[in-house]
Amino acid sequence: MGHQCFDVSLDRKVAHIILTRPEKRNSMIPAFWDELPAIVRELDHSAQARAIVISSTGPHFTAGLDLSAIGPGGAPDLDAEAKRRARRLRGARFYEDVRRMQRSFSVLEECRVPVLAAIQGGCIGGGVDLATACDMRYASEDAFFCIQEVNIGMTADVGTFPRLVKLIPEGIVRELAYTGRRMPAQEAVAAGLVNRVFADPEALVEGTLEIAREIASKAPLAIYGSKRMINYARDHSTADGLDYIGIWNASMLQPEEIGEAIAANRDKRDGDFVELPPVRKSQSEKI
């Protein structure tokens, strides 16, 4: 099935999701918020991929939310009373819209396989929300990050602050949020927001795919467990994290996978690992 905002390919257990609206700077139109989580869930639930790379096209990774999606709307043919009632519901409707967009990015964090972002040019507004929901971020020399919302009189609300303050020092987050300035790639890597900087977009994509291929060569159960443990440890106390990993390995540790990993390393060959099981759809998803 075709998509308005993305191309998707799969090679050697690495899925590559590419934003494909360079003429619009890959702004996030309404279709974006439906397509991205649907693509990621399909790749994850069907166990097609062991790692996912998200990259882009054109001069910028993404310009963020298409402002026309949140601009003034409504039905001009409504009578005065209907318009008044609609205004009273505006806050509740906005809240539901924001929650929907937040869920679209939370899917990246919740899926069982690592998601790597390859960022060239501007990563602006909602792009920061997207990037911070990924497991790792890589950038080209020309990349920059901008919490654009403050420049248009908004407070970032799709995930920037809850995630960014766990990735880089709070003081830097506050400066970026209060000033709306650009953080260039070299500053981002120094702060810990970006793992590595590549010379140009071509080297960025190939380098990120190569890292994803290395991840895909490892035992999927071990990668899945590592992602779960890292996310859990980030959000809980050390004591809780220690207890959870003990419980996790008591039920999930597989001696056969350990033995195969050791043998594959010794013999310098690809491991013959089991794939993650497909995720069964709930009744609500089937309807």
Q: Topology, please?
A:
Elements lengths: L5 E6 L2 E6 L10 H16 L5 E5 L24 H9 L1 H21 L4 E5 L2 E3 L1 H8 L2 E5 L3 E3 L13 H5 L5 H10 L2 E3 H7 L4 E3 L2 H16 L3 H16 L2 H15 L2 H13 L15 H4 L1
Do you know the CATH topology of the largest domain? Answer: 2-enoyl-CoA Hydratase, Chain A, domain 1
The first-level CATH class of the largest domain is given as Alpha Beta
Mean pLDDT: 93
Tally of discrete structural domains:
2
Largest β sheet strand count, sense and barrel closure: 6 strands, mixed
Sheet with most strands: strand arrangement = 1-2-3-4-6-9
- In N-to-C order, the SSE pattern is EEHEHHEEHEEHHEHEHHHHH
Measured as a percent range, the helix fraction is 40-55%
Q: Give the amount of beta strand, in percent.
A: 5-15%
State the end-to-end CA separation. Answer: 20 Å
Low-confidence stretches: 71-75
Estimate the global geometry from the Cα principal axes: globular
Please tally the β strands and state the result: 9
Rg over C-alpha atoms, rounded to the nearest angstrom: 21 Å
